[in-house]
Amino acid sequence: MRLKVLGAAGEVTGSNYLLECGSSRVLIDCGMYQGKGDDEKNRAQFDFVPSSLNSVLLTHAHIDHSGRVPLLVQKGFKGKIWATLPTVELVSVLWQDSVRLMKEEAAWKTRKNERKGLPPVEPLYKEEDAQKAAHLLTPATYDDKIEVAPGITVRFRDAGHILGSAIIEVWMEEDGKEVKVVFSGDLGPQQTVMERNPADISRADYVIIESTYGDRSHKSNKETREEFRQVITEALKSKAKVMIPTFVVDRAQRLLYEMMLLQKEGILRDNVPIFFDSPMGVKATEIYNSHLSLFSGEIQNHVKQGDDPFTPNQLHYVESVEDSRRINDIKHAIVLAGSGMCNGGRIVHHLKHGVWNPDNRIIFVGYQARGTLGRRIIDGEKILRIAGEEVTVNAQLHTINGFSAHADREDLLAWAGNFETSPVFFVTHGEPKSSQALAASLQENNLKAVVPVIGEEFVRGHSLLPDNVIK
Ligand SMILES: [Zn+2]
Ligand SMILES: [Zn+2]
Predict the structure, then answer these.
(1) What's the 60 CA to ligand 1 centre distance in angstroms?
(2) What DSSP string describes 345-383?
(3) 390-417, pLDDT tens digit by residue?
(4) Domains in the chain, start-ordered, CATH in brackets?
């Protein structure tokens, strides 16, 4: 058995692992790098021949796990791409959106290059590549064993991160012996709200574990809900506009659900319109609505009572650009729009038209990376150039960090603590500080942990242990 870490080592994005056993080769995730200036990394040649892979397994739909799959297909991969049915549906929508964004960016760069006498810029992949990739998607049911290559059997288990997310268990036969590797994918918290809790797994020889929040603890669900309730109550008093920049898959549906609850409590009244301004978000919510049986007991209880968990009263889906502009003239409303960090998408024009007003509110519900418009607003910049116009930031700002769909430090340790076979943990998908902190915590709990570097290869019986284990 040979495991090669090809992405998400020392960083969060670009998840990509190659697993080989005999002559069988399987790729787990093939994500896009999403940091600033990562275009080159996304365009870099694959470290393997795409046509030599038997199959690809996707842990979930997020672009940092799935975004380079159409490129893999363009470069000759023709096998099956295994994923749960919700992931199959969500990823098809996300790839289409990627194609659109890359096309726009390439056209913009080409225009810039033309003025300098430089050659045009091609997008990373095109519509036809995404379509071909979508044809190769093959649904994998949760909890059933599937043979994905000769001698390689897998099982998708619920990861509790977003709809369709999976932990993947992999069994391989080598020299008549069974070896088991578990990929955590992105893990949800131990106590989820909408999704089911991540599956406990007790046996493995090797575990690849994410560490996005390996060094941090989140607020409890109760505290986060109380915070949201207070901010919304306060915000509604001024009868102004509440703008919420949000990721449109999962985070937005969580907010819609929380708003449905606030309406039931009478805190949010039916006379306040809620606009969800995102064509992609509309499709994502449809997919969420069509898989209600995969959600938590809490959500299913609401379904039983006849509630529509992701459709609060007065919810208006906004698809056309004209309808999006019309919101500018509405004074009192809640507006949800992407992107989550305000570095693009329709939220930008809502901010441009709304941040000057001291009665308006902006609620940040997700991480704002350095350099993004969202971060600059949070950091207190008063005069900003938004969509070509200079505007003054007078709106009141709120930040709620507890809506994360990721496990925190304690959650990760609890999940890792379920293994009874003393596996080796490969700590990935985190900034170096988080990955090192989680590895150290695992070791304090007498578990074996390694923080691999990008490109590192582990061959069973050779470099796996003990040299690479942090002491
Ligand atoms: Zn994710
Ligand atoms: Zn991720």
Answers:
(1) 7
(2) STHHHHHHHHTT-TT-EEEE-S---TTSHHHHHHTT--E
(3) 999 999 999 998 998 999 999 999 999 9
(4) 2-216+405-459 (3.60.15.10), 221-399 (3.40.50.10890)
